[in-house]
Amino acid sequence: MIAICRYFFLLALFCDLFFAKDLNRDKNADISKDAILAKIQELYNAPLNEKSQALTCNLTKKQLDEVKLDINSPIFPYFNALLELNTSEKISKIAQDLLMQEVRNKDRLHTLLALQLHFIKKCDRCEKVRDISNFDYYRFSNSNVQKLLYTEGGNFKSSFVLHGEAFLCKALESKSLESKKDSKLAQYFLKSYANFMLAGLHTRALNVLLYGLSLTNDNALYATFKFLASNDIVILKNLNSVHLLKIMELDSKNYFKNINMIRNFKNLKAIEGSLVSNYVISGLLIRDMDMGRILSPFSKFATQQTIDEFKQKQQYYEQELQDSSLKILKNATKQEIYEYYRILTLKERLKGQISGLITKLY
């Protein structure tokens, strides 16, 4: 079975590389803009072949060497904001300012948190994150492809999905070097989580978060989980279970073990969207849940009707973003269109591996 999976992975990788070579052969390459757009449309419409699978690195060494990771960026403003929020449900103005300073520096971990806090109305000074992140690009008829690509992290080499996978690969590599422990191991997992969340790969992001927590027992990873479990963002909101976690901390500091001992945190699932989904769709859904327009599908009050309403709203936003993206791409260059195509292709490959139970993978 492993050999078969490896065969199909290598086949997909070969096809992607062959397409890239054919596209860049010369300026009069046979593959047209319309052909690439058609491939993007196919990716939008194709059903995902999902399968549950443990976390592995899906990049070659050459691909990893080409990715420039921001390893040394600070995490204190992020961690400090979560500590305040998890303790008092409020964030001080100073903590908000520190957070937004890193957002202006285009730091991805802090941008993710600022977006989440903005849409659950717990950060008064986070409003500017919408402009900085080009969140509303799809609403304007004059938006260009650079704004579209920005919401995926830029071109392929700087994309959220590629950096999420690269940080995961680095974490797994560091974990395997038993004789040389990397002090930044937990940060690799945290930054992988942030990039995957921004890319809209929520289940993979949560798997990374929990796996990192199981290996490192890191406070920032643990604070992140408690924050997610305390708000309607991507997983079950359960304040009683979070409170129970805090009580359990008095007896045991093994955070991952404590999480797995709580019934409501077993068999966790995350809100997952289509390939067009990223932090834009996530933000819109978080806003609607916070305002009471829709109910989280994981709520204890959820019914089949409310779940259907959630799916309808999610599909509406995805279609709106898809239509806007295709319109923008028609005026883009062939290379710009191809950058977006490569991002979607990697998202498709990774989304196909993330279905199933989160906390039972390890």
UniProtKB/TrEMBL annotation:
This is Uncharacterized protein. It comes from Helicobacter saguini.
